[in-house]
Amino acid sequence: MRTGPSLAIQLGIVLTLGASAALTPVAAFAEPSAAAVPFTTVTFGESRGQGVATTLSEQVARSRADRSRGASAKADFLRRAAADGKFYETGSVDYLRLERADGVAADVVVPHDYRLDSVDLGFGQMSGEKGNSAVATATGGEVANPSAPLYPTGPGFETYAQVSRGSYQIFVYYSNRSGKIYFDWSKYKDQDTTHPDYELWAYKRWAVATPPGSPMDTVQSMGMRSYPTSASQNVLRGWNELQPLPGSYAGNCAGNSIGLNIANIGVSFNACQHWRVDWNDLPWNAGDMSFNWWQNGPFYQAGHHNMAALFSVQTFPGTTPYYKDFYKVKFYYAPTDCAATDKSANCYF
User: Going edge to edge, which strands form the sheet with 105-111?
Assistant: First the structure.
């Protein structure tokens, strides 16, 4: 029996479905092990969960910092790809080492022209099988436009690693009803691109408002705003990128999802009703950005609603920006909205 089995997932050759270039999941199996254990699966993505000690972006950053990592696996991948008519330079592929807490590991080779969203790594006795098997499935897709900000991409691509994250909730109680809004933020630092004059930081925010289930009620409006602390205004050099772009928008609530991407950071929200994005374009206020969503009838869309935003900024070398987070929600039958900054809260009406 081999402990800590290792397997290679080759992502160079994929099947696509029309213009969407959806990646058919790729599976790899290790030889069975005699001492059967219950089958468990862990998911490697852009956040650390139970049994996951690394993220995909962290592994990409390590690969690009040390091109000798995984030399044998990359060479094998290049040979296999060439045999199928696809040719890559050694520097255009990344090697990712994904290891579970129990020692089961996957060696993943990813070309720069592919987006890797997640890798599920399972191990144990599968139904109808004898002994243990290791199974890895990868999801992602071929990047149709190499210049698009999808992960991974070409040389010089910024690779952001998460450095901090937090979340808050507001509970609203009124007329024997209760609703809530959940707010989540993450801060990232660029680990790949170096410049003598500045450093790059990114910030992701999203929120979900949930109205009371019974009696029937709806989310009337919600909003969120981030803005730098007064001390951070002294370290900011200016904006780098923001999404969505400032302006007013409307959606038909038909389940259309709007995806936002800055480098390897992504988030999405449903295009429903009305929303507006505003920003402060002054360099020392980089990151001052608001997202406001509302519906004003005569027909109100029931159920939960969400919002999301991304931005990246430049700071002076060796400095770290900090932001305040304001968020609010108003339910149709509540007399007014409820808001909080950098904390959870309860509102009673």
Answer: 6-10, 105-111, 93-99
